[in-house]
Input
Amino acid sequence: MPRSLARILTRAHACVNLPVGNEAGRDKHHRMNTVLWTHLLMGAEVITDDTDKPALYRHADRLDRLSRELGLGSFIAACDTTDLRFEAHGFELPSGVHSTLDMMARHGAWLPVASAITLLTGLTAHLQRNKLTFGLLHEEYHEVLAELTAALAFATAAPPDARFNFSIVT
Output
């Protein structure tokens, strides 16, 4: 069973004083926002849609609970921490590796694109039917739905043998 995104990231964030979840962006002078980006792996090439998806990051744990309750698999299983780990710990890339995208292509967390489409379609349909509330101080239903819809469009455009993930980016 996947651990919560907050638990996975807390340790890495603590190393460099990065915000976790709803703390993201509170102190704009000293902290950076953490977001999700969508990626496709086609062969050895990573295709990036680097459109920030901050609402999906902030609500990843809830989306994970929903996706598992709906029998769609784990939302968090689609979240890769390669870029975050290299940024948070200041790791050097191994010889012959040119970017964290190369590392993610080789060792990252990926879902078959068909599984990602099923996951994203199911979450989107459930949100549209049930108009769930996201956020305590600021309602983010529309942001979550728009970001899920954009991720679904990105995944749907991929060939059937592609793989999909969300990359956690600071």
The chain is about 45% helix and 15% strand.
